[in-house]
Write a structure and sequence with these properties.
Layout: H1 2-18, H2 20-29, H3 35-39, H4 41-67
Length: 73
């Protein structure tokens, strides 16, 4: 019985609290001009972060190859 209440609480937390900003985006901003771009601003932010992390990873990988300390086993 307690496990069922925990899962119901988690479900209500996500649907009633954590997704409210996305509901606002979907209902009010997405219907305006440039709505697609504004609605996907979060996705563009994640993409930018991923590209920066990928560039850092490639830079460090190149540095280890040039130093000869990369483990190629």
């Amino acid at each position: 019985m307690i496990a069922g209440n925990i899962f119901k609480w988690i479900g209500s937390l996500f649907t009633e609290v954590l997704f409210l900003p996305f509901e606002f985006l979907r209902l009010s901003i997405a219907t305006q001009d440039l709505g697609w771009w504004i609605s996907n601003l979060i996705n563009w932010g994640f993409l930018l972060i991923l590209l920066m992390l990928f560039a850092y990873w490639m830079k460090e990988s190149k540095r280890f190859i040039e130093e000869g300390t990369e483990d190629r086993a």
